[in-house]
Amino acid sequence: MDRLDRLVSELQNEIDEKERAIYSARVLEQARNPTNLGRLEPADAHASYTGWCGDTMEVWIHLQGGAIRQASFMTDGCGPAVACGNMVTTLVVGMTPDEANQVQPQDVIRALDGLPEESAHCAELAVTTLRRALAGLQPRDAAAAQ
Ligand code: FES
Question: Is 0.85 topped by the overall pTM?
Answer without folding.
Answer: yes
